[in-house]
Backbone:
């Protein structure tokens, strides 16, 4: 806390800087020590635990009017926030699809905030680093050096950015000036029935509407059915629509299925469609020696959405949209207001990074990504991806060897859909039983798994996108699922 300062002519001036830097330095050392302890002991804590009422109530405390010493503020955070995490940095967190963060990335986030630069653009080192990270991602995806890209909050934003460029490029009218009302024919986008929900949101905010996104059925491996896709495009053309874009998914959120990207690239070229790849889950397979072939064809895409906060484990948030045609990308978003004109030299002489997306002010997301890649080398991230795929296969093998458990969908990469079964139970009862297993696994702090429905079958779902997971964790999941399954079956038998 700082004391107000009096100037010679008696004006009082304040700042947010501390009055006593030594005090802040000591506290910061404490925070750092606690943070390192927190991370190195993560395995010893429960994955998740619910908050007691006192903790919940704490978050309805009144707007602070008067100061509180930073040490006290920190103690509140240490006691009320840090012990009740979502849990995704824990080795047995496998719900939905998250990354497990990393210490170096956290240091990067801290330093980014300390430097405090605004990555809207300009001539400074952080802006160059932002572009270097984009260059690295282009190289990983096999994109040409002339392509462009932008770091955004996550995969949803990355997909929206890319689909906006697709819409504007394929519209046939000047959408920026005239809006979607000027379209001579309604646009159609295509993706599989396994598409992530963010594409629906994208279609809605792009003014095209959910119905303009046709969901194409999938084959037995839950990949887009190419024959059905061709038929849908032909049908739409005949009916007076303008087919504009096909979205391939490299790793679906339900099961990790990877569409045939080579075939989609060729089909998009034949049909003159924009080819976008939602690579939020699987695009980074491209850096793995064993699995890179699974996403062959991604280098032919017009745009790719990447999610570094998933398989690169960047602390939230970090997503990235890459666009092959940099002019189309910039042409979709660039607006140069008079207060943001470039100058030949000086601070405003750099690239205006805000010309490649929707944000004007942008955080220094690149640093956390850059530091972790630099420290580990990209090959290590490739090995960690393969390690997760191996662990998912191992889990699949354990499930198949277990009479009381079954796989519900084929395992493509690191997502395992399975359920506990018990003879004589119908599908509704199985759903209740498995949901109860899932909730107890969470509440006992053992493991976080989620659930989904694949082709009408409810199942538990484990997505191993976690650099802390070990085989032993997977074995523990099997043991605990079996224990809870029989416990719950017995409970309902005695009631
Ligand atoms: C996670 C995910 C998204 C959305 O990404 P966010 O980073 O959560 O915004 C989009 N598509 C797929 C396939 C995903 O797995």
Residues:
């Amino acid at each position: 806390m700082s004391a107000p300062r009096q100037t010679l002519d008696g004006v009082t001036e304040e700042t947010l800087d501390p009055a006593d830097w030594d005090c802040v330095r000591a506290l910061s050392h404490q925070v750092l020590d606690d943070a390192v302890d927190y991370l190195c002991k993560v395995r010893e804590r429960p994955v998740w635990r619910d908050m007691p009422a006192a903790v919940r109530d704490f978050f309805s405390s009144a707007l602070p009017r008067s100061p509180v010493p930073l040490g006290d503020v920190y103690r509140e955070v240490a006691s009320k926030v840090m012990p009740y995490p979502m849990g995704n940095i824990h080795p047995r967190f496998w719900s939905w699809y998250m990354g497990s963060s990393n210490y170096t990335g956290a240091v990067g986030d801290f330093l980014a905030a300390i430097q405090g630069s605004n990555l809207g653009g300009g001539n400074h080192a952080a802006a160059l680093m932002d572009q270097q990270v984009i260059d690295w991602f282009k190289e990983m995806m096999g994109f040409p050096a002339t392509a462009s890209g932008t770091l955004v909050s996550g995969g949803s934003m990355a997909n929206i950015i890319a689909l906006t460029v697709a819409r504007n490029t394929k519209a046939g009218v000047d959408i920026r000036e005239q809006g979607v009302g000027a379209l001579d024919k309604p646009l159609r986008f295509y993706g599989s029935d396994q598409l992530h929900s963010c594409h629906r949101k994208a279609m809605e905010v792009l003014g095209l509407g959910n119905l303009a996104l046709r969901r194409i059925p999938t084959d037995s491996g839950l990949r887009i059915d190419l024959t059905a896709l061709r038929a849908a495009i032909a049908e739409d053309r005949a009916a007076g629509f303008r087919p504009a874009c096909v979205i391939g998914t490299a790793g679906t959120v339900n099961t990790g299925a990877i569409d045939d990207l080579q075939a989609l690239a060729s089909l998009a070229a034949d049909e003159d469609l924009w080819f976008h790849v939602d690579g939020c889950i699987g695009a980074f397979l491209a850096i793995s020696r064993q699995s890179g072939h699974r996403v062959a064809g991604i280098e032919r895409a017009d745009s790719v959405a990447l999610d570094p906060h998933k398989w690169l484990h960047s602390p939230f948030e970090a997503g990235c949209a890459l666009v092959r045609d940099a002019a189309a990308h910039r042409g979709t978003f660039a607006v140069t207001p008079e207060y943001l004109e470039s100058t030949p030299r000086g601070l405003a002489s750099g690239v205006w990074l805000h010309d490649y997306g929707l944000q004007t002010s942008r955080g220094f997301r690149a640093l956390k990504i850059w530091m972790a890649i630099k420290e580990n080398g990209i090959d290590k991230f490739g090995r960690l991806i393969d390690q997760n795929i191996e662990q998912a296969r191992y889990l699949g093998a354990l499930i198949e060897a277990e009479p009381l458990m079954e796989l519900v969908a084929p395992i493509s990469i690191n997502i395992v859909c399975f359920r506990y079964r018990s003879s004589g139970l119908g599908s509704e009862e199985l759903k209740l039983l498995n949901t109860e297993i899932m909730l107890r696994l969470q509440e006992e702090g053992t493991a976080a798994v989620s659930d989904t429905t694949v082709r009408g079958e409810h199942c538990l779902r484990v997505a191993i996108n976690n650099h802390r997971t070990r085989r032993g964790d997977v074995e523990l999941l099997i043991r605990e699922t079996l224990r809870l399954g029989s416990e719950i079956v017995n409970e309902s038998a005695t009631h």
About this structure: The mean pLDDT is 96.
